[in-house]
Amino acid sequence: MVNAAMKQNSLFLLFSFLWCFAPAQNEKNVDSLKLHLRTETVDSNRQSIYSSLGWLLKNTQSDTALTYEKKAMVIAKKMKSEKRIAASYNHLGVIYWIIGEYDKAIVNTLHALEFYEKLGKQKEMSDEYTNLSLIYSMTKNFTTATDYALKSIVIREKLKDQVLLAAAYQNLGYVFYQAGLKEKAAESFIKAAKCQEKASNKTGLEGTYNDIAVIYTEEKNYGLALEYYQKSLALSIGANNKLVMTESYSNMGQLYTFTKDFSKAKACFDKALTTAKELQSKKEFQSIYFALSDWSLAQDQYKVSLEYFKRASSIKDSLINSEKNNELAEAQAKYEANEKDKQIQLLNKDKALKDIEIEKQTAEAGKQQTQRNAFILGFVLVLVLVGFVYRSYRDKKKDNRIIESQKNLVEEKQKEILDSIRYAKRIQESILPTEKYIERNLKRLQKK
Q1: Which of 96, 373, 407, 409 is placed for a possible disulfide with 104 were both Cys, Cβ 3.0 to 4.6 Å?
Q2: Is 387 exposed, middle or buried (0-12, 13-18, 19+ CB in 10 A)?
C-alpha cells in the first residue's frame, strides 16, 4: 500500500507537470469552440480554435485531439508563426505521450524546444526539458531523463521562480525514484519542499512531505518518515483535505505496525476510517482494511486478520464489478459509435459504388458510342474505297477497250500498208527489168 501511495502521488505529480499550462477541460467550451469553428474564416482564429480543441480533448478523445492539433499545425506553418508552431509541437508531444507513442512524443517535444530556444523563451524551454525528462523516464532511459531534469533546474534557478523550481526538483525526485535511487529521490523531494516553503505553497507541500515520508519508510528510517507524515497531516488538516488526511493516517498506522507500536497504529487506522467515511471512498476503505489485516496478523490475531481481509476483498470485488460495469458501458458506447461509423461507412461505400457504377456505365456508353462512330466511319471509308476501286476498275476497263480498239486500228492500218507495199512491189517487179536482164545486157554492151 505504501508503494501504491508513492506511485499515486508521483503520477499526480507527473500529470500536473506536463499539463500545468492546460486550460480547464469543459464540455461546454468544446461545444462552443466547435460552433465557432463552423463560421470562423480568419486563419489565426481557426488555428487557435483547433489548438484549443486538441488540448481540451487530449485526455478523453486523444485521436480526435491529435487530428485537431495537426490541423492547427498546418495553419501555424502557413502563417509562419514560430510561437504558434512551437505551441502545437508542445501539444502534439503531450498528446503522443498520452497515447503511449513515446518516440513521436520525444520528436515533437524536441521540435518545440528548438523553436523556444530560437525565440529565447526560457520558461517554455524549462517546461520542454521537464516534459522530455518525464517521457524518457517512462521509457526507462533514466540517464537521459536525469540530464533533461537537471537542465530544467538550471533554467528555473535563473528565473528565481520557487514554484517552478519546486516542480523541477519534484520531477528529478520522481526520476530517481523510478530508477531505484531512493536516497537521491528523497534529497530532491526535500529540495522541492524547501522551494515550496519559500513560496508558501502549502497545497504542494502536502504531497511532497508525503513522498519524502514514503521513501524514508521504504528505507526503514521510521523516525524521519513519521516526522514528514506528521508535517503532511498538519497541512492537510489545516486545508481540510480529507483525502490526504486519510492517506496520512493510514500510512502512519502502517509505520507504527512496522515498529510494533500496535496501539498507536490502531488509533491511526481508526482516524483513517473516520475520514474515509466522510469521503465515502471505497478505495480508501479497501486500503485501510488491508492494512488492518496486516496489523492483526503482526499480533497473531489470525481470525481478526481474516475478517479484515474478507472486508477488503469484498470491497475489491465490488470495485472490480463497478469498473467492469463502467468498462461495459464504455464498450457499449464504443460499440454503438462504431456501429454508427460502420453505417456511415457503408452508406459512403454504397454511394461510392453507385458513383463508380455510374462512371462505369458512362464510360461504357462512351466506349460503345466511340465504337459505333468508329464502325460507321470505317464503313464509310470502305464504301469510299470500294467506290474508288470500282471507278478505277471501270476507267481502266474503258482505257483497255480504247487501247484494244486503237491496237486493232493500228493493226488494220499496218495490214493495209503492208498490202499496199506488196502490191506496189509486184507492180514494180512487173515494170522494172530483172537483175539478170540488166546483167546480160551490160555484158553484151561491153563486148561491143
Answers
A1: 96
A2: exposed
432 DSSP assignment: S
- By C-alpha distance, which of 176, 190, 201 is closest to 224? 190
C-alpha grid cell, residue 187: 534529497
pTM exceeds 0.70 for this model: no
Q: How do residues 144-167 score in pLDDT, each as one tens digit?
A: 999 999 999 999 999 998 999 998
Local structure of 161: helix, strand or coil: coil
Separation of alpha carbons 361 and 351, rounded Å: 15
Q: Is 433 helix (H, G, I), strand (E, B) or coil?
A: coil
- Cell triple for residue 108? 515533437
| Residue 116 DSSP code | H
Write out pLDDT tens, residues 330-359.
Answer: 544 554 555 455 455 555 555 555 655 666
Q: What angle do CA 376, 378, 382 make, to 5 degrees?
A: 115
Residues whose CB is less than 8 angstroms from the CB of residue 364 and which lie 6 or more positions away in sequence, other chains included: none
DSSP 120: T
What gap in Å lies between CA 153 and CA 131, rounded to an integer? 13
Q: Are 331 and 294 in contact (CB under 8 A)?
A: no
Contacts of 20 (CB under 8 A, 6+ apart): 127, 167
CATH number of the structural domain 201-300: 1.25.40.10
